[in-house]
Amino acid sequence: AGLPGATLAAALAAAVAALVTIGWALDGGSFAEPAVVVCAGLAALALVARTADLLRDGRIAAMISQESQHRFRELADRTSDVVLICDRDGIIRYASPAVGEYGYTSAELEGRSLSELVHPEDRAAGARTVRAATAGRHPDRFPCRVRSADGTWRHVESTVSRYREVNTPGQLLITARDVSDQVALRRQVTYLTYHDGLTGLPNRAYVEDRAKDAIDRAAAAEPDRPSAQIGAVFIDLDGFTGVNDSIGHGAGDLLLAQAARRLRAAVPSGDTVARWGGDEFAILVESAASAPEIVDLAERLAGIIAAEPFRVADREISLTASIGVALAGGRALGHLLRNADVAMSRAKDLGGGRVEVFAAHMHADVMRRLEMASDLRAAVTAGKLELQYQPVVDFSTSQVIGVEALVRWSRGGQPVPPAEFLGVAEDSGLVVPLGEQVLREACAQAAAWRGAGLEIGVSVNFSLRQLTAAGFAASVLTALDETGLPPGALTLEVAERVLIDGAGPMADGLAELRRHGVRLAIDDFGTGYASLAYLKQLSVDVIKIDPSFVTGLGDDATLAMLTRTIIQVGHDLGIEVVAEGIERPEHLDLLREMGCGLGQGYLIAKPMDAAGIEALVRSGWQGTTVPGEATAPVVAPAK
Ligand code: C2E
Ligand code: MG
Ligand code: MG
Hints:
Blueprint: H1 5-26, H2 34-56, H3 59-67, H4 69-78, E1 82-86, E2 92-95, H5 106-109, H6 123-134, E3 142-147, E4 153-163, E5 171-178, H7 180-194, H8 204-221, E6 231-237, H9 240-247, H10 249-266, E7 272-277, E8 280-285, H11 291-307, E9 310-312, E10 315-317, E11 321-327, H12 336-349, E12 355-357, H13 360-381, E13 386-394, E14 399-411, E15 414-416, H14 418-428, H15 431-451, E16 457-462, H16 464-468, H17 472-483, E17 490-495, H18 496-501, H19 505-515, E18 519-525, H20 535-538, E19 542-545, H21 547-552, H22 557-572, E20 576-580, H23 585-593, E21 598-600, H24 610-619
Parallel strand pairs: 11-12, 14-16, 16-17, 17-18, 18-19, 19-20, 20-21
Antiparallel strand pairs: 1-2, 1-5, 3-4, 4-5, 6-8, 6-11, 7-8, 9-10, 13-14, 13-21, 14-15
Helix pairs in contact: 1-2, 9-10, 10-11, 13-14, 15-17, 17-19
One magnesium ion is lined by residues 404, 461, 493, 523.
C-alpha cells in the first residue's frame, strides 16, 4: 500500500503551500477567511504527519525507487559498489561498471550465472539469502567471497532484494561492496591478539580460550567422567634470566624462538603449543589417549630442551626445563592451566630440570606461600624484621674480625626459618625492600660498633633479585653514605650459583661497588658449578666454603682433599678463605692444619643480637682446639 510518488509530491506541495498561507494569514495578510485558513492548515499538518510515517517505515524509498527506474542505471553506473540485476534463475542481466574493480567488464558478466562467481562454501548461504529476498523480506547484509577475473577470492558484503521492473517481474537486485581490506585488518587484529610476535606461536590469551573450549566440550560430552585425556604441560627454561643477562636480550630472543621450534616439532599437530610469556610455554594436549601419554610427552619435552645445546651468538648454551603437568579430570577441570603452572613452580623449587605432575597439596602449598607473602609484606612495611649477627673469627688471634648479618622474622610469635620466608620474599620481589632494611640496619650497626672502637666489618647477603633490581649499586652506596660506614667494612655475600649465572648489569653493579672499596664474597662455595679455575675470573675478595664441606671433614677423604685445594687456590689468588659451618673441634683442627685461618659456625658462636657481639668482641673468642671438649657453642646463643 502507499501513495504513488506523484501523488505524494502533490500532497507535499499542497502542505507546504498551506503552511505558507497560514504563516501569511497570521502575519496579518488577508488572503482568505480565517476558517478556511485553519482547515487548510489542519489538512496540511495531517499530511506532514503521514509523510513522516512513510519516511519512518522506509516505504518512500521503495516508492522513489519504483518511480525512478530510469534514474537507477545512472546511479548504478556511478557507485563504487557493484550492482547486479539477475533473473530468478541467477543469470546476470545487468552488471554495473564497478565490476571493473574485479577485472571484469559488464559485458563479460552479463549472461553468466551468479553462482559461478560465489565461493563454493558460501553458495548455500547465498541461496538462502536469495530465497528470503524473493519472499520479499528486507535485505540482510550477507558476507561472501567472490571470484575476481584473476582467480583470487575477494571478500564482499552484499545485499539482495527484489527488483521491481514492470515488464520483467521476479528479478533480483544485488549490491556488493569489497570488504577485503576490512577482513584482512580484522584477521590481522585477531592474529596479533592471539599470537606471540617473537615465536609465532599462539599466545596466552589463545591457549586460555582454547583450554576453556576443550574443557567445556569434554564436560558436555561426558558429564560423569570428564575426559581424562585433556591435559596441560607448562615449561619454564631454567636459568634463562642469567642467559639473557649474559648474551643480551636479542640473542635471548633467538634462543626462545629456537626452543619454540623444538617444542612445536615434538608435540602432535592437533595440540596447542603456546608462549605463555617470558621463558614460559604452555601446551594444551587434546589428542592424547591416556593420562600417562601426557606425562610421557612432558618427559620427552624435558629431553628435547636438555639434549642439545642451543646455538646463539656464536655460543652453545645448555639449558634444562622445569615442567609441570596437569590432567583434566574430577574437580581439577576448571583449573587445568593454573594447576600445570603450580606443578611447574614445584619442579623449579625442587631444583629444575624435572617434570612434576600436579597434586592437590600443591595448591595448598601455593596458598600457604601467598599467605606468608602477605604477612611478610606487612612485617617489612612495619619494620618488624630483626637482625642477628654471626661472628667470623681469626683462629690465630681469637679475634672477631667481622660478622655476618642474618635476617630473622617472627610470625605471630613463631620464628620462621629464613630459608622458608626468603624463598617467598624472592618469588614475590619482597626481598628487595626487605634487603634494603637489612643493609641499612647492618651498616648502621657496624658504623656504631666502629664508633665505639670495635674494628669489625659486616657481611650482608644479597640474592639474585636484589642484585638485578634497578639501582642496586646506587642504593648500596647511599646506605654507606648515610650511615657513614667505610665501604671497605662492608662485604656483599653472593651465592656461587648467582654469581656464575649473572652477567651484564648485575656484574657491572658489583664491579662498580668494588671500585668504591666494597668487598665481594662468594657464598656457599663448592655447591654450584664454579670450578676452581674459574675463580680468578670472578674477581672476588672472599670465598666462603660451604658447610657441606666442613661437616664432612674427618670422615670423607675426598671432601678433605677438595677443601684443602680450595684453601690453597684461594690463598694463591690472594683471596680470603672463610670456612662456614664449623660445629666440632676436629673440624677446626683440620681447617687450621690446612691453613684456613678464618671461620664461623656453631662451635664458635651461633647468630646473636648486637649486644652479644659487642660482649664477644670485647672479650675475644675463648677458642679451644682440644678435641671433644667444646661441642657446645662457646658463646651462648641468643634466645
Ligand atoms: P648463608 O649466607 O650461607 O648463611 C649461613 C647460614 O648458616 C645461616 O643460616 C647460619 O645460621 C647457618 N649456620 C651458621 N653456623 C652454622 C653451623 O655451624 N652449622 C649449621 N648447620 N649452620 C650454620 P640462616 O640464618 O638460616 O640463613 C640461611 C641463608 O639465608 C643464608 O645462608 C643466606 O643465604 C640467607 N640469608 C640470611 N639472611 C639474609 C638476608 O638478610 N638477605 C638475604 N638475601 N639472604 C639472607
Ligand atoms: Mg652468607
Ligand atoms: Mg654460606
